[in-house]
């Protein structure tokens, strides 16, 4: 049986959707905090396991009868790393055979500006040391983040970000979820690492050009200083922690951290991942 954590989130939903297309629901379990939010999965025959990353006792119970666990990385909680370690500990205690983890595809973890990303590689190290069989899904920055980064007025004001000419091999979360599910279903022995990225790395100037083509409205990219972005975000009432994380993302993009391009996603999907142009049409409803 495969246990998907974070099962009501966007990535978990995409994984479960594909799993249920290719394997009986009786082979699938979902870890959820609120079972009411997963009623649709339960109606399809998915086994609901109620718990959360911060509650080891609930994790111990959730792992019973599980062979593979997909640990979908948590958010930005201060104890986020410990939450990941709790899941790995519970899996080992319950005799789970394989733990898969959704990590990040970054060029050089040692030089990251966005320190929140470091916990991904600390989780990887802990999982390797656990003795469990592991699968690492190193995912590129979701294309789905583009509307957040470009802002709600993008078609009026263009894109103003401190990313310079930095490039990102954006991929849709839906494509990643589908690929993750297909890999899990292969149940191949041995430890594996996948780098899930788009087929091409794009700058924010390329994003602006795609938005222009898709909408028929001119969108320009303006490379601004980090403090300009920070000031504008403060004016909108954005919390300081979110401002600093956004600037961290942009700094890492500028330095090439997100520019990795790998064929792994296309191979797992059995097709090319969604292009930037098609992706922005979906994300911006164009």
From TrEMBL:
Among Gene3D superfamilies, the record links this protein to: NAD(P)-binding Rossmann-like Domain (3.40.50.720), UDP-galactose 4-epimerase, domain 1 (3.90.25.10)
Give start and end of each NmrA-like domain. Answer: 2-240
Top-level taxon in the UniProt lineage: Bacteria
Protein name according to UniProt: SDR family oxidoreductase
Taxonomy, top ranks, is:
Bacteria, Pseudomonadati, Bacteroidota, Cytophagia, Cytophagales
């Amino acid at each position: 049986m495969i246990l998907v954590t974070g099962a009501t989130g966007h990535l978990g939903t995409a994984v479960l959707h594909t799993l249920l297309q290719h394997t009986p629901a009786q082979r699938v379990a979902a870890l959820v905090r609120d079972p009411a939010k997963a009623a649709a999965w339960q109606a399809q025959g998915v086994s609901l396991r109620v718990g959360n990353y911060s509650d080891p006792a609930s994790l111990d119970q959730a792992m019973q009868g599980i062979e593979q666990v997909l640990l979908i990385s948590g958010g930005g909680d201060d104890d986020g790393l410990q939450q990941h370690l709790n899941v790995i500990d519970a899996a080992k205690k319950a005799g789970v055979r394989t733990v898969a983890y959704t990590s990040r595809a970054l060029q050089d973890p040692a030089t990251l500006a966005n320190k929140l990303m470091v916990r991904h590689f600390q989780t990887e190290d802990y999982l390797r040391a656990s003795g469990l069989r592991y699968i690492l899904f190193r995912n590129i920055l979701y294309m789905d983040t583009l509307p957040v980064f470009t802002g709600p007025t993008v078609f009026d004001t263009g894109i103003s970000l401190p990313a310079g000419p930095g490039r990102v091999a954006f991929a849709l979360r839906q494509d990643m979820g589908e690929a993750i599910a297909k890999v899990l279903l292969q149940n191949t022995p041995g430890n594996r690492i996948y780098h899930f990225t788009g087929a091409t790395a794009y700058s924010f100037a390329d994003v602006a050009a795609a938005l222009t083509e898709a909408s028929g409205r001119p969108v320009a990219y303006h490379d601004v200083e980090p403090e300009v972005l920070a000031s504008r975000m403060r004016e909108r009432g954005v919390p300081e922690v979110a401002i600093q994380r956004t600037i961290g993302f942009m700094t890492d993009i500028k330095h090439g951290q997100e520019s990795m391009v790998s064929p792994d996603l296309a191979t797992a999907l059995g097709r090319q991942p969604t292009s930037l142009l098609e992706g922005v049409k979906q994300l911006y409803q164009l």
